[in-house]
Amino acid sequence: ARFWHEHPEWRVGKMGDPVSQLHREILGPRTSPIVGTWLWGGLNFAVSEVRQRRLAELRECCERYPIDGLDLDFQRFPIYFPVGKESEHIGTMTEWMRAVRQMTREVGRKRGRPLLVSARIMARPAQNLGLGLDPVTWAKEGLIDFATISHYLRNDFPLPVADYRRLFPAGLPLYASIEVEPKPDTYRQLARELWQDGVDGILLFNFFTPRENGKELPFELLHELGDPKKIRVVA
């Protein structure tokens, strides 16, 4: 976009900057090293013009289209402030989230139907704070209607559902994301475990990507994974 090209000084870094330990931890072993080089193109939310631009884009989505809500995907890509400055701007991002919530309530009142706001966040609570994100405060202030905890291109360790339950207000719906897997039965097993851990719903992320290699999708999973009683047991 022209906005991005005209303001290189409003990006979080520059090409060639080293990838932080936190980002290596989030991206994990399945992610191509090239992805780390993309992070530095992210816009810096410490800059007021960046926050205003993003808010204006969200407002356009809400006013222009009959959507039910916004899912703010903080997992793609997980960088919002220059490395080393994240803790200084936890309040900055929370204030921006307040502005998002105020905007959705305003638009919702005008159209006579509420707009929900959800956030897709990191796999581990400490990773959010390390990026300058404070979804626990967002939840306690009513700035989000539900949260989705997520890996980044991986499913190699259990998502800490119980940890998030202890941190979030009682009653806040908590979803979990499953990244793309080659075998349908792997999806089934992951979903069973998440339901057992007490999630309120499942998000499939990158589910469509097998089509990039000419493979059809296992659409039957869409009829199963949303209800633990419907997940097929394969011998």
Topology, please?
Blueprint: H1 2-6, H2 21-27, H3 34-38, H4 48-64, E1 69-73, H5 90-111, E2 116-121, H6 125-130, H7 135-140, E3 146-149, H8 161-167, E4 174-178, H9 184-197, E5 201-204
Parallel strand pairs: 1-2, 2-3, 3-4, 4-5
Helix pairs in contact: 4-5
Report on this structure.
By secondary structure, the protein is α/β, with parallel strands linked by helices. It has helices at 2-6, 21-27, 34-38, 48-64, 90-111, 125-130, 135-140, 161-167, 184-197; strands at residues 69-73, 116-121, 146-149, 174-178, 201-204. Strands 1-2-3-4-5 form a 5-stranded parallel β-sheet, covered by helices on one side. Strand 3, helix 8 (161-167) and strand 4 (174-178) form a beta-alpha-beta unit. The longest helix is centred in the middle third of the chain and has 22 residues, at 90-111. The N and C termini lie far apart (51 Å). The mean pLDDT is 96.
List SSEs in N-to-C order: HHHHEHEHHEHEHE
Number of strands: 5
Mean pLDDT: 96
Number of helices: 9
| Fraction in helix | 25-40%
Structural category is alpha/beta
Q: Which runs of at least 5 residues are low in confidence (pLDDT < 50)?
A: none
Rounded to the nearest angstrom, the distance between the terminal CA atoms is 51 Å
Strand content: 5-15%
Largest sheet: 5 strands, parallel
Question: What best-fitting shape do the alpha-carbon axes yield?
Answer: globular
Strand order of the largest sheet: 1-2-3-4-5
Radius of gyration: 19 Å
